[in-house]
């Protein structure tokens, strides 16, 4: 299987879907002439023309709304946010329009569109540009959210998102774009990963590290360290946060009897809070320890390099949490 | 370090306890595990054991006085240690719960702290974790800290959490503790093992089987409870010809005389009941609300009158014990019951009960079921009565037995079949061999 980067995988997904369906178009800041801020749309302008690869002004609320209108009238827009931090400005269109119109029109309108771009912190981008935005999106019914952590997941999930008839947010990671991984050759046919299906990235019997997005790599790193100490950790990558693969979570907890949720975002009403609630409701009698969370510190992300490092979740803290639920600390 | 002595929950239902005797006085040296006092609970007189070592510095509850569970009643400390006594008794009145609550909140805030405070890479050590606390043998399981999984596993394996030492934070019982306890089933807390004779009976399959309720059982249960109260009793009486039992007992006692063993009619009734129950597990059952639990072993509760009420010590595995064994055990349990010296596990866990008022000349009576058991036998006096045999009036030793049945579990026909088996064994004791 060819090894390609996460960036290339997204580019393949966009190109393949635009090739397959002429209603698909890409719009966002710098996506056309500049090939995208992170070069995800490299070559697309040349290949599909300026009608389908559109540079927008710096006006997130405006072009997100334009996308909603286009989707309602039969197109399949892919709206790129340079980062999801900037989409906070567009949340009225995301939450009040995209997520609601199918319901409020009693099904007369569908909003088949994709919002995509990086979420979470990169390096020293400070408090306003380092936020994990998942919770703001999944909180509202009516919009789906996927968070691919690997090149293969990025390609398969973006293609599924474009084909879905509901609005889907695809949250990527700035630090993921250069990550390489195996992705099936396009010659071998469409590679699609259905929404709402988690993936066990590493099998284990002793403790479940459940996570999503970029943190999959931190979880695997922690699992590697634990393995050296004889602890066999399972890493469950949710991939989709809405719809959620409840069965996969419960299956893993039934097996290991202990779980740690790892996420980039803040702890307060975070994704982990939802997963912990689910586990205690549905798998109470299988728990041998409280479910712990490893998250970003509950503060705006510091700019100072040393403080930023301390505020982010890392493998060391995941290992400590796993040992705690194993009663080994 | 000072150790507060609390009034402990020494029976599952105890809410307060009365000091019968202090076995240690102020100034006495105490080693952890020493018996400090005898406490009268709602069920029996129990020993209160020291959970720390030092000198008994202060006794705060006199003999004869009563305190609620959890109240501090004495302090053990080093001889020269400064005691904080000002208002201590008052403040510590709910000490047990308060301390637990404080521990719990400290623990959770520490957890929260760790989650939010990324700066703290290592979890803070928990000082109390290494301390080995002796589990209180008679504490109600609901008051014991255990993970949900450990709780479920212990129930499935039939292990009492009170007998398991927790190794998690704050003494929490976790999965590995239950597994270890299962691996060494005979580990019992010190002090109790000696007083609780539990003859080993070879395990024969699972202890019990839970049978889910069918719709008709649910309807029967609902309707009957509406009609007659939470436990819908009905009664079945048999009049048993005891001629052969009288004869058999005479011969057994003659044979056992050299060993100084004597069996009573009641012992024979108990043995026969246990055998009949073993053959009718439908009657050897508990009502579980949404299921009926049928026991494969017979633990027979034997009602014993005591000074201020009655108590039912349990003959465990009665179906598997010989008459002499049952006789000895009943005598021993009854005598300690009258002295209020039974430990809780000696009067709980019965699957069925027998009450006998024959010695008071009661011809027949009905007994009230001891929930969640599904039945109880009320045994009347054995007396010569005229009966018609083959068209002629003759005198025979007769005994009436009335079975109270929980109609949610046992229907009339089922109870009757059980009584038929029981009558068969009593009227022809040789059937016991069949």
Strand content of chain B: 15-25%
Give a short account of the largest sheet of chain A: 7 strands, mixed
CATH superfamily of the largest domain in chain B: Chloramphenicol acetyltransferase-like domain
Q: How many separate helices of chain B?
A: 9
CATH class of the largest domain in chain B: Alpha Beta
Describe what you observe in this structure:
- The complex is a heterodimer of chains A (329) and B (434).
- Chain A has two domains: 3-188, Rossmann fold, CATH 3.40.50.970; 199-325, Rossmann fold (3-Layer(aba) Sandwich).
- Helices cover 36% and strands 17% of the residues of chain A.
- In chain A, strand 13, helix 10 and strand 14 form a beta-alpha-beta unit.
- Chain A is an alpha/beta fold.
- Chain A is built from twelve helices and 14 strands.
- The mean pLDDT of chain A is 97.
- Chain A has a seven-stranded mixed beta sheet with strand order 3-2-4-5-7-6-12, sandwiched between helices.
- With 434 residues, chain B is an alpha+beta fold.
- Chain B folds into three domains: 3-97, OB fold (Dihydrolipoamide Acetyltransferase, E2P) (Beta Barrel), CATH 2.40.50.100; 133-195, E3-binding domain (Dihydrolipoamide Transferase, Irregular), CATH 4.10.320.10; 208-433, Chloramphenicol acetyltransferase-like domain (Chloramphenicol Acetyltransferase, 2-Layer Sandwich), CATH 3.30.559.10.
- In chain B, the strands form five sheets. Chain B has a six-stranded mixed beta sheet with strand order 10-19-18-17-13-16. A four-stranded antiparallel beta sheet of chain B has the order 1-8-6-3, with no helix packed on it.
- In chain B, strand 14 (304-306) and strand 15 (309-311) form a beta hairpin.
- In chain B, helix 7 (265-279) crosses helix 8 (323-338).
Short description:
The complex is a heterodimer of chains A (329) and B (434). With 329 residues, chain A is of the alpha/beta class. Chain A has helices at residues 6-20, 44-48, 60-72, 91-98, 101-104, 134-138, 151-163, 215-228, 246-256, 271-282, 305-311, 315-325; strands at residues 3-5, 24-28, 53-55, 76-80, 114-118, 144-146, 168-172, 180-182, 199-202, 207-211, 233-237, 240-242, 259-262, 292-294.
């Amino acid at each position: 299987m060819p090894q390609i980067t996460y960036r290339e995988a997204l580019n393949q997904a966009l190109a393949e879907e635009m090739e397959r369906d002429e209603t698909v178009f890409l719009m966002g800041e710098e996506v056309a002439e500049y090939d995208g801020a992170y070069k995800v749309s490299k070559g697309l302008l040349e290949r599909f023309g300026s009608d389908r690869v559109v540079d927008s002004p710096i006006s997130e609320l405006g072009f997100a709304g334009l996308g909603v209108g286009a989707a309602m009238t039969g197109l399949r827009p892919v709206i790129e946010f340079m980062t999801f931090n900037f989409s906070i400005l567009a949340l009225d269109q995301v939450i009040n329009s995209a997520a609601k119109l199918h319901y409020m029109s009693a099904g007369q309108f569908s909003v088949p569109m994709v919002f995509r771009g990086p979420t979470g912190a990169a390096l020293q981008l400070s408090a306003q540009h380092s936020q994990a935005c998942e919770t703001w999106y999944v909180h509202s019914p009516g919009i789906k959210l996927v968070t691919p952590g690997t090149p293969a997941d990025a390609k398969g999930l973006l293609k599924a998102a474009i084909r879905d008839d509901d609005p889907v947010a695809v949250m990527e990671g700035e630090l993921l774009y250069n990550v390489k991984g195996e992705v099936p050759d396009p010659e071998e046919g469409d590679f699609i990963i259905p929404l709402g299906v988690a993936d066990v990235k590493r099998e284990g019997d002793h403790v479940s590290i459940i996570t999503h997005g970029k943190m999959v790599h931190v979880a695997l790193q922690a699992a590697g360290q634990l393995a050296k100490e004889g602890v066999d950790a399972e890493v469950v990558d949710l991939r989709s946060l809405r719809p959620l693969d409840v069965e996969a979570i419960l299956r893993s907890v039934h097996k290991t009897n202990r779980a740690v949720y790892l996420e980039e975002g803040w702890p307060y009403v975070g994704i982990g809070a939802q997963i912990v609630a689910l586990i205690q409701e549905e798998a109470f009698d299988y728990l041998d320890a409280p479910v712990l969370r490893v998250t970003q510190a509950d503060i705006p992300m510091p700019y100072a390099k040393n403080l930023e490092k301390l505020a982010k979740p890392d493998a060391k803290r995941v290992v400590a949490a796993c040992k705690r639920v194993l009663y080994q600390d | 370090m000072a150790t507060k002595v609390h009034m402990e929950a020494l029976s599952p239902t105890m809410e307060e306890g009365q000091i019968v005797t202090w076995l240690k006085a102020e100034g006495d040296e105490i080693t952890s595990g020493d018996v400090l006092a005898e406490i009268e609970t709602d069920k029996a007189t129990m020993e209160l054991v020291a959970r720390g070592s030092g000198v008994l510095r202060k006794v705060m509850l006199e003999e004869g006085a009563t305190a609620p569970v959890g109240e501090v009643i004495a302090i053990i400390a080093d001889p020269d240690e400064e005691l904080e006594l000002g208002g201590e008794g008052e403040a510590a009145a709910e000490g047990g719960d308060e301390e637990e609550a404080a521990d719990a909140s400290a623990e959770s805030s520490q957890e929260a702290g760790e989650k939010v405070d990324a700066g703290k890479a290592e979890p803070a050590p928990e000082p109390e974790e290494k301390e080995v606390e002796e589990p209180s043998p008679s504490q109600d399981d609901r008051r014991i800290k255990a993970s949900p999984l450990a709780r479920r596993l212990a129930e499935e394996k039939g292990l009492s959490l009170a007998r398991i030492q927790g190794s998690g934070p704050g003494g929490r019982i976790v999965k590995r503790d239950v597994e270890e306890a299962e691996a060494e089933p005979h580990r019992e807390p010190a002090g109790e093992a000696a007083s609780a004779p539990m003859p080993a009976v070879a395990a024969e399959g699972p202890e019990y089987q839970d049978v889910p309720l069918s719709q008709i059982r649910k309807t029967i249960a609902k309707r009957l409870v509406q009609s007659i109260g939470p436990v819908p009793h009905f009664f079945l009486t048999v009049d048993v010809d005891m001629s052969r039992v009288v004869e058999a007992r005479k011969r057994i006692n003659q044979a056992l005389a050299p060993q100084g063993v004597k069996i009573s009619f009641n012992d024979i009734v108990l043995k026969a009941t246990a055998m009949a129950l073993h053959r009718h597990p439908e009657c050897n059952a508990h009502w579980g609300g949404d299921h009926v639990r049928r026991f494969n072993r017979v633990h027979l509760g034997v009602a014993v009158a005591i000074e201020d009420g009655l108590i039912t010590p349990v003959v465990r595995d009665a179906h598997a014990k010989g008459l002499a064994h049952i006789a000895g055990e009943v005598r021993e349990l009854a005598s300690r019951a009258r002295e209020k010296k039974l430990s809780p596990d000696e009067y709980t866990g019965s699957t069925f009960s027998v009450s006998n008022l024959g010695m008071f000349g009661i011809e027949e009576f009905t007994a009230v079921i001891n929930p969640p058991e599904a039945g109880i036998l009320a045994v009347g006096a054995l007396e010569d009565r005229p009966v018609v045999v083959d068209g002629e009036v003759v005198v025979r030793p007769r005994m009436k037995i009335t079975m109270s049945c929980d109609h949610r579990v046992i229907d009339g026909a089922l109870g009757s079949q059980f009584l038929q088996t029981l009558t068969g064994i009593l009227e022809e004791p040789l059937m016991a061999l069949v």
